[in-house]
Amino acid sequence: MKQDSIPSGEAARERAMPALGADAQRRLGLKLRSLYERTIDGLPIPLEQVELLLRLRHRERDAQRAR
Predict the structure, then answer these.
(1) Residue 62 CB: number of other CB atoms within 10 A?
(2) Which residues make Cβ contacts (< 8 Å) with residue 12, sequence separation at least 6?
(3) CA-to-CA distance for 25 and 20, rounded, in angstroms?
(4) CA-to-CA distance for 65 and 2, rounded, in angstroms?
(5) What is the pTM of this model?
(6) How far apart are CA 17 and CA 7, in angstroms?
(7) CA 23, 67, 27 angle in degrees (round to 5)?
(8) The pLDDT value given to residue 8
(9) Residues 5-47: pLDDT tens digits?
């Protein structure tokens, strides 16, 4: 098997995971935010989390532009 045919990193995860509908994404996001707010209790957001949130926001913008 050729190595360049094997997906790696984020591309592999995106292909392996099924797409969630808009309602499921919204509910999941609300639940995660509520859990995060209760557990962190006002601590600064780690840079890794900021990067993930920025990527999510970019995807949301791309999805809105595609409509």
Answers:
(1) 9
(2) 6
(3) 6
(4) 37
(5) 0.38
(6) 13
(7) 15
(8) 62
(9) 555 666 666 666 678 888 888 999 899 888 877 776 667 888 9
